[in-house]
Design goal:
GO terms for molecular function: transferase activity. It comes from Candidatus Onthocola gallistercoris. Keywords: Transferase. InterPro entries: LicD/FKTN/FKRP_NTP_transf (IPR007074), LPS_cholinephosphotransferase (IPR052942). This is Phosphorylcholine transferase LicD. By secondary structure, the protein is of the alpha+beta class. The protein has a domain of 188 residues. Helices cover 37% and strands 17% of the residues. It contains eight helices and eleven strands. The strands form three sheets. Strands 1, 2, 3, 4, 6, 7 and 8 form a seven-stranded mixed beta sheet that branches. A two-stranded antiparallel ribbon has the order 5-11. The longest helix has 24 residues. It is globular and about 50 Å long. The chain starts with 5 loop residues before the first helix and ends in a 19-residue tail after the last strand.
């Protein structure tokens, strides 16, 4: 895996923007609330576009809108171009959230190279959930979110210590069948999401990994979206973007050190001109992966 060339990064940004514009228009049409999160929101505020070294765009949606999106996309979206992927009983893509993928492109990641799925350029769409007021309820929510994360992704988490890795291996070994793992993850999902945003004072993100599960954002920060200039378009960010971004990232308007201004590139293959299907057996679903 090598770094993107400037041309590849520019092309990937253009494709991501094209997808984001379609996604936002779809959400507007169907009265779904969405907004940039992470680098997209920071880019809108600091650069009026992409963070120069950023290579993707992510969205937040309140849980109710997120679930409505799943139902509406398959009926109303241009699924010949864009497929919505979300792990279910039939397949697991090792993400904790849904992705929108462009079928006409190729972006193969190492952690998915053994999977027979759509390996197109992706938008990540992450749900927001209520953060319960009770400390005990909150502890239970995080515990269920960790169980959900393990059985939904069905992989041992990296970079979270040996103890978590060992515990994860044991937990997966205790539930070897796909059917049992699915039942556990759906039960855990039900338990962690049973605190409606409307009844809570704060919001959290449960599908972004253990680090972000600890975050607590004011509910009002996500009541609506405000539109900001982004690469010549008007794109949504949370109305309380400052409260959200300061909690999540600290001093987000200050540029990071020069050595950190690089794309977090982890792709095995990028091809913006051809569908991932031409690479089956060569870059994904290879014999050694079986």
């Amino acid at each position: 895996m090598a770094d993107y060339t400037p041309e590849e990064l520019k092309g990937l940004q253009e494709k991501s923007l094209e997808m984001a514009v379609y996604f936002v228009d779809f959400c507007k049409k169907h009265d779904l609330l969405c907004y940039f999160c992470g680098g997209g929101a920071i880019g809108a505020l600091r650069h009026q576009g992409f963070i120069p070294w950023d290579d993707d765009l992510d969205f937040f949606m309140p849980r109710k809108d997120y679930e409505r999106l799943v139902r509406l996309w398959r009926k109303e979206a241009d699924t010949k171009k864009y497929v919505l992927m979300k792990s279910n009983r039939r397949y697991v893509d090792r993400n904790l959230f849904l992705t929108i993928r462009d079928r006409r492109t190729t972006l193969i990641k190492p952690y998915q190279k053994d999977l027979n799925i759509c390996h197109g350029v992706a938008l990540d769409v992450l749900p927001l959930d209520g953060y319960p007021d009770s400390k005990w309820a909150r502890k239970k929510q995080v515990a269920w979110a960790l169980i959900y994360s393990l059985y939904c992704a069905q992989t041992v988490p990296e970079n979270h210590g040996r103890l978590m890795a060992l515990g994860s291996r044991i937990a997966l070994a205790l539930a070897p069948s796909a059917r049992l793992r699915y039942r556990i993850w759906k039960f855990a999902e039900k338990q962690m999401t049973k605190y409606p945003i409307e009844t809570c004072h704060y919001i959290t993100e449960l599908c972004s990994g253990p680090g972000y599960m600890k975050k607590r954002y004011p509910k009002e920060a996500f009541d609506s979206a405000v539109y900001m200039p982004f690469e010549g378009y008007s794109m949504p960010i949370p109305v309380g973007y400052d409260a959200y971004l300061r909690e999540a990232f600290g001093d987000y308007m200050t540029l990071p050190p020069k050595e950190k201004r690089v794309a977090h590139h982890d792709a095995l293959l990028l091809d913006l001109e051809h569908s991932y299907r031409r690479y089956k057996g060569k870059y994904y679903c290879m014999e050694e992966d079986k």
